[in-house]
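Dear H.,

Thanks for agreeing to be a second pair of eyes. The structure we're designing against is below in token form, covering all 323 positions.
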């Protein structure tokens, strides 16, 4: 639904054929297919990112600021996206000659953004405080741990070019290369990609990098990859050139879809023994002595002779009760 809403909202800017091709590229990208069906902060952030851009494209600015406020609280790095998007939207409203434009329109949007930020932060504060049993705002702890105390570096620091190969891994190559070529080819319509490009630049600059942090940018890049393939489709009557262009676009599309499906099948094949083993052992160990790490594919089982296990969580200092 999130990707469809994004593709549908892009029709006035990019055209129906480009939107349809972009939708097909997105749903057959293995990253999008794997993470959008899961429960987790990266999934919610990516879905909200799609809907935020859809609201922007369709001019629903009030919904836009509220969704941005929620997304920033889920993933603070989205603040860079919200800031760029807000600046562009404000300039568009300011230069608009229609009713609701000009300085009054910008002031109204700023007031709505302040209201959304306050209301969402207050809700998070209440739920955090009830959960932890003391006044707590988890996003403050998150920012302190990750940025001011450089806690994220405990999980490893990566070189500047770490994301370079990730953007070209598997069948991301059409999403990334096609998306960038599409952005360069559509002129002023590329404005909707700027927040995502800024997010990629911010992620490149951070010492700690993870592949999943890129996920929210893939649907937007897929949309512009669709615009690029649409531009490649023939428009001239020359039969030979027409057939050549159709062949090139068909080959790229089939390679993308085929590699995406093969990777999804490979993932299912690789992790099937893990799931089967976990199910079998859980049935045979008395009391279900199963110990799981944060990630379900990094699980292990305590031997019968083990009577006590002690483990810690790096977040315990900042989020009491998390462990």
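And this is the sequence the design step returned. I haven't edited it by hand at all.
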């Amino acid at each position: 639904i999130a990707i469809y809403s994004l593709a549908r909202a892009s029709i006035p800017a990019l055209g129906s054929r480009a939107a349809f091709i972009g939708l097909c590229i997105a749903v057959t990208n293995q990253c999008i297919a794997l993470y959008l069906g899961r429960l987790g902060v990266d999934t919610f952030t990516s879905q909200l990112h799609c809907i935020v851009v859809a609201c922007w494209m369709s001019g629903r600015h009030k919904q836009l600021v509220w969704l941005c406020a929620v997304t920033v609280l889920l993933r603070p790095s989205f603040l860079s996206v919200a800031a760029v998007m807000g600046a562009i939207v404000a300039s568009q409203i300011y230069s608009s000659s229609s009713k609701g434009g000009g300085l009054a329109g910008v002031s109204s949007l700023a007031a709505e953004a302040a209201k959304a930020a306050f209301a969402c932060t207050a809700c998070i504060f209440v739920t955090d405080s009830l959960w932890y049993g003391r006044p707590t705002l988890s996003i403050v702890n998150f920012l302190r741990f990750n940025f001011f105390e450089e806690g994220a570096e405990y999980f490893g620091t990566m070189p500047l070019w770490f994301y370079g190969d990730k953007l070209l891994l598997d069948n991301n190559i059409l999403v990334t290369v096609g998306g960038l070529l599409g952005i360069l080819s559509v002129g002023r319509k590329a404005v909707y990609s700027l927040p995502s490009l800024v997010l990629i630049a911010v992620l490149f600059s951070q010492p700690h990098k993870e592949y999943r942090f890129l996920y929210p940018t893939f649907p937007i890049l897929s949309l512009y990859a669709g615009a690029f393939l649409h531009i490649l489709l023939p428009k001239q009557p020359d039969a030979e050139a027409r057939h050549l262009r159709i062949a090139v676009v068909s080959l790229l599309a089939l390679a993308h879809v085929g590699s995406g499906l093969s990777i999804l099948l490979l993932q299912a094949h690789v992790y099937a023994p893990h799931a089967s083993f976990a199910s079998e052992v859980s049935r045979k160990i008395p009391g279900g002595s199963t110990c799981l790490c944060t990630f379900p594919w990094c699980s292990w089982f305590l031997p019968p002779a083990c009577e006590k296990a002690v483990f810690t969580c790096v977040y315990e200092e900042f989020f009491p009760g998390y462990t």
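Two observations from my side: The first helix runs from residue 2 to 9. The mean pLDDT is 81.

Warmly,
E.
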